[in-house]
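Recall that a protein's primary structure is simply its ordered list of amino acids. Everything else, from secondary elements to tertiary packing, is in principle encoded there. The following example makes that idea concrete.
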Amino acid sequence: MDILSTVQPITILLYHQVGHNPKSKTNLDCFCRADYFYSQMAYLKESPFTVISLKDAYQYLFVKDNLSRPAIVLTFDDGDASFYDAVFPVLQEFMFPSVLFPVSGLLGQKTEWFKHACSRMPIIAPEQLRELHAFGVEIGSHSVDHPRLTQLNDRQIFRQIYDSKNWLEEIISDEVMAFAYPHGDYNRKVVDAVKKSGYLCAVTCLAKAANHAPNPFEIPRKYITYNDDLGRFVCKLSS
């Protein structure tokens, strides 16, 4: 089935941190204001869009027939602890599904890939991850420790992708079906490793509607950033 035959658009949104005050060295492309996030979710609740899981999006894009309404998927990379405290309560209020892509090797620790130590953020703990999954949050993989995968050798690439999936599945006692490329960095070798590791799909940082995915392992997502007030947010949904 041609992916573009899926007439109703499916837009996958990419969030990282959600909070009230970013630290001085925080990358604002990876930070969403908590008040903006709430207004965005409130808008979606009253909008023509339906919010669906990534599993359902995969089915509609590559297996099933068309959706009856345009759809949104909410994804959150890294596993910042703010998801547990600031994001999940809002998602529960609006009864929205979501997918969290934590860095498996840093659960309960702080991020290590930021240039400035002061901007490092705490990653969600294993017991919190288990609790979120029990409440319906879909868990995906974001590698073991968030490297640029294209800069690694074959063995290192496979370890980052395969080990992360296995560790997370042990924690949540369920399948991890989706992978998110750290830094949005991937090539054909990385895609092949994702396939061989048993994932069903993978998401990128290419800013397009998901309907334009050339295959299940290169599904686009749109960044939501510090500057995305409600007006900019709505524009991203329709672009």
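Helices lie at 34-46, 54-62, 82-94, 126-134, 154-172, 188-196, 230-238. Residues 1-6 have pLDDT under 50 and may be disordered.
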